[in-house]
Amino acid sequence: MGKTVLMIIQAIASLILIGSILLQSGKSAGLSGSIAGGAEQLMGKQKGRSYETLLSKVTSIGAVVFIITSIVLVYLQK
Question: For residue 77, what are the CA distances in angstroms to 2, 22, 69, 74?
Answer without folding.
Answer: 12, 32, 12, 5
